[in-house]
């Protein structure tokens, strides 16, 4: 009987295993140690690994993320938690100017093996300042990698790979998913003894031949629900493609799906203007134009800052019915 | 800005142990390095005006004693990081004039293969971590280098330089808090040249009457103020901070009074407007760090006028050679634009070969 664990536990296991795997891995963030993590992702790690490896930082994102970048130039591998990815904006200079460009400006003499991780999602009624989904913004910057897992299995396999990667990886999670459970095998059930998922490989989360629903992060779950509904109510079978990593991007899996189904919908919580879906739609029309039977369409958040009012926020971000309707408009 | 005047009276800091230990050769070496910085930059200025380079060129002329006096104290596990006025520090840590000049010319032989330019010199093999163009942006990195040393159990420190204008950036204050809170062996060196671009220091910074470095008091951090025209004073006081970092893993802020002769950047249209000609002239004649060190070494009988002339000529010749080297070097291949973005791609690892990393054709 395969075990099920939460997305939160999966991340916790991944972090724990990487702390064991490499002495240079150090976790830094607000409330990550003694408080056990604002969202309990790092629960128990400070108890197990102590002050040197799991460090409570003051509320000083530019300071401690910049510090982590500097330390990484000397070979430390900091994994830094943002309590919300929305707070990246106070560390924006460090994350964009320093982490992303130091390698280039030094002509390749330096690299920056850091991970910055934390939740980037709406839907929890915390207002506009706490609901940003900046994966498109960071993925726009060459030198950075952006990852956004949708399940516990992916969260564990991807966080481990992100920590071992020698480039800066910005790892965007979801508070909505933290408590949800998925099957994640024990290490002794896995070839090679541990779960490592490469960046740049998308995952086909559901197979169908009529339509491609493409998504990343929490929107993958929305797309899966929409796909079930499309199948049961409309007899439409959708592929659901989960990017898992946005940059590097697995274009092949997307294109293979679209060439099979001839129809594509991108689903994401990003705002529409230059969202991840805009990049994917551009790529599909350029590389699979002759296969398309309909325009590529997108389901995104409504184009306003995140609203607080709970019933309204529910309809401001993508929900299954909206995806179903968008899909029906091109089927 | 230099606050003390005295190019004739002997420095009281000559008696400091670190200065007593100096050999004549070492004293001459300081002079040589300061001259090399100055001639390198004067040469680069000529070629800037001759349209051989683009962008900004922030000259260090007038401030040479700061880099030379502080960096000479460093050992194997000590590191250096600074802002965009970075040529002086680069030459002092041992980067060559050729690679530095070629970088200004945008050539493939430049220290960053033409990818960084004047503001972004790096030499990790010499513990030199840039060269940073965002005012104050290097200050958390400096704390991070110190964190890295401490994490790895190495006895070292990081000298992190910044300007008098940079002290007003939030990132600097966050860095100070982390450095003091976590006992990081970082020494922040404020090169107070009196101006941030065209804004005089009095118009930009609120601070305790003792000086800018005294802001350290708010963080419970050690600090000191140094007259930058006196190499002996720079060495004596910086040594205390380096020892504190090495022995106690504790940070320090040092403020070194100095002055820049040229505009903020060579492309500074107002270079002569926000300060008087007389002010600039006064510094050149009364407070020039090279002249003052020369006078000291003449008085000590370490060098003769002829020695000075020879050193000056050597430095000038080396700079000219560097310009020739830079001029004759090739520009980078256009294909190199896409190199040095991702380590994993450059190294052609499994990770670097998986998925699409670049989105231009
Ligand atoms: C964040 C940021 N703001 C503004 C600038 C433009 N700028 C570059 S240098 C400078 C003045 C800095 O003065 P100071 O820190 O005293 O250093 P100095 O130039 O005197 O060495 C300004 C405003 C910049 N590069 N980065
Ligand atoms: Mg200044």
Q: Any idea how many domains of chain A?
A: 2
What is the topology, as strand order, of the major beta sheet of chain A?
3-2-4-5-7-6-12
CATH superfamily of the largest domain in chain A: Thiamin diphosphate (ThDP)-binding fold, Pyr/PP domains
Strand order of the largest sheet of chain B: 1-2-3-7-6
CATH topology of chain B: Rossmann fold
Q: Main sheet of chain A, how many strands, which sense, barrel?
A: 7 strands, mixed
Instruction: Quickly name the level 1 CATH class of chain B.
Output: Alpha Beta
CATH class label of the largest domain in chain A? Alpha Beta
The kinds of small molecule bound in this structure are: thiamine diphosphate, magnesium ion
Secondary structural class of chain B = alpha/beta
Radius of gyration of chain B, Cα only, in angstroms?
21 Å
CATH homologous superfamily assignment of chain B: Thiamin diphosphate (ThDP)-binding fold, Pyr/PP domains
Low-confidence stretches of chain B: 1-8
Distance from first to last alpha carbon of chain A: 39 Å
Please name the two chains that share the biggest interface, counting residues whose Cβ lies under 8 Å from a Cβ on the partner chain: A-B, 54 and 57 residues
Return residue spans of chain A where pLDDT drops below 50 for at least 5 consecutive residues: none
Task: Walk me through the structure.
The complex is a heterodimer of chains A (331) and B (361). Chain A has 331 residues and is α/β, with parallel strands linked by helices. Chain A folds into 2 domains: 4-189, Rossmann fold (3-Layer(aba) Sandwich), CATH 3.40.50.970; 203-330, Rossmann fold (3-Layer(aba) Sandwich). Helices cover 36% and strands 17% of the residues of chain A. Chain A has a 7-stranded mixed β-sheet with strand order 3-2-4-5-7-6-12, with helices on both faces. In chain A, strand 10 (211-215), helix 8 and strand 11 form a beta-alpha-beta unit. In chain A, helix 9 crosses helix 10 (276-287). The termini of chain A are far apart. Chain B has 361 residues and is of the alpha/beta class. Chain B has one domain: Rossmann fold (3-Layer(aba) Sandwich), CATH 3.40.50.970. Chain B is 43% helix and 9% strand. Chain B has 14 helices and 7 strands. Chain B has helices at residues 17-20, 24-49, 64-71, 87-93, 97-104, 138-151, 170-181, 201-204, 231-248, 277-286, 289-299, 305-328, 343-346, 350-353, and strands at 79-81, 158-163, 186-192, 195-196, 199-200, 222-227, 252-257. In chain B, strands 1-2-3-7-6 form a 5-stranded parallel β-sheet, with helices on both faces. In chain B, strands 4-5 form a two-stranded antiparallel ribbon. In chain B, helix 3 (64-71) runs parallel beside helix 4 and helix 6 runs parallel beside helix 7. The radius of gyration of chain B is 21 Å and the shape is globular. The N and C termini of chain B lie far apart (51 Å). At the A-B interface, helix 3, helix 4 and helix 5 of A face helix 6, helix 7 and helix 13 of B.
């Amino acid at each position: 009987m395969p075990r099920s664990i939460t997305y939160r536990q999966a991340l916790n296991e991944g972090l724990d295993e990487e702390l064991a795997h490499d002495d240079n891995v150090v976790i830094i963030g607000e409330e990550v140690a003694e408080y056990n993590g604002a969202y309990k992702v790092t629960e128990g790690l400070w108890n197990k690994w102590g002050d040197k490896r799991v460090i409570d930082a003051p509320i000083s994102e530019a300071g401690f993320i910049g510090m982590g970048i500097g330390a990484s130039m000397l070979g430390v591998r900091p994994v830094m938690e943002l309590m919300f990815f929305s707070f990246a904006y106070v560390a924006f200079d460090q994350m964009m100017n320093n982490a992303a460009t130091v390698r280039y400006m030094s002509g390749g003499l330096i690299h920056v093996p850091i991970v910055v991780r934390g939740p980037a999602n709406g839907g929890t009624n915390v207002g506009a300042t706490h609901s940003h989904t900046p994966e498109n913004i960071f993925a726009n910057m060459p030198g950075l990698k952006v990852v956004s897992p949708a399940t516990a299995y992916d969260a564990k396999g991807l966080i481990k790979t992100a920590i071992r990667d020698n480039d800066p990886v910005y790892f965007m999670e979801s508070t909505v998913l933290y408590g949800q459970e998925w099957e994640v095998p024990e290490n002794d059930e896995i070839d090679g003894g541990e779960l490592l998922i490469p960046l740049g490989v998308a995952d086909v989360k559901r197979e169908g031949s009529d339509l491609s629903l493409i998504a990343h992060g929490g929107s993958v779950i929305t797309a899966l629900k929409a796909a079930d509904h499309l199948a049961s109510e409309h007899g439409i079978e959708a592929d659901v493609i989960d990017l898992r990593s946005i940059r590097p991007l697995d274009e092949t899996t997307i294109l293979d799906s679209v060439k099979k189904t001839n129809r594509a919908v991108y689903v994401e919580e990003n705002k529409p203007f230059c969202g991840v879906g805009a990049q994917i739609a551009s790529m599909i029309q350029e590389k699979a134009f002759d296969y398309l039977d309909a325009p590529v369409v997108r389901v995104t958040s409504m184009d306003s800052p995140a609203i607080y009012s709970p019933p309204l926020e529910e309809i401001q971000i993508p929900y299954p019915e909206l995806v179903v309707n968008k899909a029906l408009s091109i089927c | 800005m230099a606050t003390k005047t005295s190019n004739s009276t002997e420095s009281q800091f000559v008696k400091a142990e670190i200065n007593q230990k100096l050999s004549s050769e070492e004293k001459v070496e300081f002079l040589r390095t300061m001259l090399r910085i100055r001639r390198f930059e004067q040469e680069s200025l000529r070629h800037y005006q001759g349209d051989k380079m683009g962008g900004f060129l922030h000259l260090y002329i007038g401030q040479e004693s700061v880099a030379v006096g502080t960096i000479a104290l460093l050992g194997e596990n000590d590191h250096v990081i600074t802002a965009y006025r970075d040529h002086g520090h680069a030459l002092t840590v041992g980067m060559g004039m050729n690679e530095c000049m070629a970088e200004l010319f945008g050539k493939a032989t430049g220290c960053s293969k033409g990818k960084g330019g004047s503001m972004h010199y790096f030499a990790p093999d010499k513990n030199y971590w840039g060269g940073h163009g965002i005012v104050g942006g290097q200050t958390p990195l400096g704390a991070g280098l110190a964190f890295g040393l401490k994490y790895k159990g190495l006895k070292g420190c990081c000298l992190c330089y910044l300007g008098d204008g940079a002290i007003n950036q939030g990132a600097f204050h966050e860095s100070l808090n982390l450095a003091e809170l976590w006992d990081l062996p970082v020494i922040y060196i404020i090169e107070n040249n009196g101006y941030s671009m065209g804004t005089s220091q009095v118009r930009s910074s609120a601070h305790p009457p003792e000086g800018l470095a005294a802001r350290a008091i708010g963080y419970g951090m050690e600090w000191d103020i140094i007259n930058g025209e006196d190499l002996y004073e720079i060495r004596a006081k910086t040594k205390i901070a380096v020892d504190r970092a090495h022995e106690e893993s504790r940070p320090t802020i040092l403020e070194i009074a100095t002055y820049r002769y040229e505009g903020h950047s060579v492309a500074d249209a107002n270079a002569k407007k926000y300060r008087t000609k007389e002010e600039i002239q006064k510094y050149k004649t009364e407070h020039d760090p090279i002249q003052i060190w020369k006078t000291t070494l003449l008085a000590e009988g370490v060098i003769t006028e002829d020695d000075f002339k020879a050193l000056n000529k050597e430095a000038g010749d080396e700079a000219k050679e560097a310009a020739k080297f830079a001029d004759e070097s090739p520009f980078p291949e256009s294909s190199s634009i896409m190199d040095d973005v991702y380590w994993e791609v450059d190294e052609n690892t499994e990770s670097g070969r998986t998925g699409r990393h670049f989105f231009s054709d």
